[in-house]
Amino acid sequence: MTEQNKPYEEDNYTHNIHRNRERTLDRRGFMKTMVGAAGVFAVSSLPWGGVAARELWNFADDEDERQKIANVTDVPVGESFDFTYPTEHDSALLIRLAENDYVAYQNACTHLQCPVFWEKESWEMICPCHHGYFSAETGEPTGGPPRRPLPEIELQVQDGTIYAVKVKRYEA
Asked: How many CB atoms lie within 10 A of CB 108?
């Protein structure tokens, strides 16, 4: 640095600003960088946008496979029956509320996914992890920390056999 370029006459001048390098990211360069970053963000979020659009516009309304759960004679009134639906990893609970009244729910608590059990004495479903309670008739939470109902499974009873047909979508 020559004596002419020094902004101050002091000998102990210690600033670390180099004027020639300050201009490497000017307004145009900054805008190009921001447009590039926005483009990268847009491209990287496309898969999530597709998933959201599929859910919002019901493109995901795939039909689940009809699956036999049990025979009517296997489930007495007031009793429950454990099964898996729609995959072998999704445990579910069938409850016979009356002679011709059956309900089925996926039995993972909507709070923290603990298993939910049928309590015949209190006529409700209980999550023992955090004392969550669900109505057997609707699957709605009646007590404890859960705020969302259990996912309901549509049933068909045909020729003395109970079938799971579809998991109903959660609606807020």
From this structure: 17
* Domains (range + CATH), the chain: 10-61 (no CATH), 67-167 (2.102.10.10)
Alpha helices in the chain (DSSP H): 19-22, 27-56
- Give the single-character DSSP code of 55: H
Residue 22 predicted with pLDDT over 70:
no
pTM of the predicted protein model: 0.66
Q: What pLDDT does residue 71 have? A: 94
* Nearest partner of 138 among 127, 129, 125, 128, judged by Cα: 125
At 157, phi and psi to the nearest 5? Answer: -115, 120
Q: Are 93 and 118 in contact (CB under 8 A)?
A: yes
Residue 47, classed as helix, strand or coil, is helix
CA–CA separation, 129 vs 144, rounded Å? 10
C-alpha 111/C-alpha 98 separation (Å) is 28
pLDDT digits (tens, 9 = 90+) for 132-141: 999 999 999 9
Residue type, 91: S
Mean pLDDT, the chain, rounded, equals 85
